[in-house]
């Protein structure tokens, strides 16, 4: 009987052994590197950048000036109701009718019997609506004081409509011969422009002006016209008798020192943007400083304003806008320009030959190209970064019969690095690391400055600079 053979089963090991091979080691190293880089990036402060942009600004002095005109308030010499013939801002001639006095009130009584309501045309409603919309669209919380000007303008407009309606009815009654003869017509004492508001400062001149007059700039014009009876001696209108007027501008001592020798000043009226250039006279009074500008037109444009917001436009400045937080001060080494040599291997095209010693203490020279941060042609100096140099290093002058590749400059002149100068600039990161670049400021504001865009080796438009200069060091790699 044949014997049946049984296959022997191979016994497997209880535990599986982990083998470390080359691929595993590489993966572990890469993983460790990534973890370390992630931890380092989390620990480093966030570096924000800013792209430099071109900017044009106007260097101005903003203030509130006072308008001084040849004007006077005309008072009525008798009591009664006033009927005006002249519109606000209208020019009148000598002995022309300005208003009439209804002493007994009989004329207004007749007008009331005729029709006591004011007649508003469609155009009148449109004018009032547009006036309200213009104020609403131009309103700002920081100019709340303009509400008083708006109130006066609106009251004045309604009074014009009311007065026109009364005059039309008066003319109708006169043509019908039904008007009683108790109305006294009053003529203008001089040629001028009529205004129906006043502030009590009509007699002020440039000679009598005082600093105290600028303390209460909210002193607004008072509306003269009224439907109530006027008392004898009450103001009835204001007459401005000349196109010539003065604008007196208060100045601080610093502003005065800055512009007192300017024969002409360019002034912009904030209200409507009018910009004019006028001759200026500067004077001091009671410890305060002023500039007076004389005008021979635009009087009617501002005749109902005593205080006028203006800007003295010094000049316009074109340059590069840089946040003040980006600015940093650095010391730079000074190297005479005569010690520089041409090099095609550097971004600036300039190199210097540094005197060094080899391991055998043998003298040799090495071409170096530290970043040039500023060039002063008048002084004949390059100002370079301190990263690649230190005090005491010697720079060898390359003469005309030598080249930068020469290794023997024993007979050449040397310059020892020692002189330093303080500069203000920014850190650019265009090359992936923080590089100091000098900034030549043209204008300084509270939160930014305007830098010259023509400075050689300086800042340029579209450069990326570090927003917070305290968050980085020169030479630090960004990415």
Report on the architecture of this protein.
18% of the residues lie in helices and 37% in strands. By secondary structure, it is an alpha+beta fold. The mean pLDDT is 82. It folds into three domains: 57-81 and 190-317, no CATH class; 106-181; 327-471, no CATH class. Strand 19 and strand 20 form a beta hairpin.
What are the key terms here?
479 residues, alpha+beta, 3 domains, six-stranded antiparallel β-barrel, 37% strand, elongated
The rounded distance between the terminal residues' Cα atoms is 85 Å
Please give the share of residues in helix.
Answer: 10-25%
- What's the number of helices? 5
* Overall mean pLDDT: 82
Rg estimate, integer Å? 42 Å
Strand percent estimate: 35-45%
Strand order of the largest sheet: 2-10-13-12-11-14
Shape verdict: elongated
Low-confidence stretches: none
DSSP summary, beta strand count = 27
Largest sheet at a glance?
6 strands, antiparallel, barrel
Protein structure class: alpha+beta
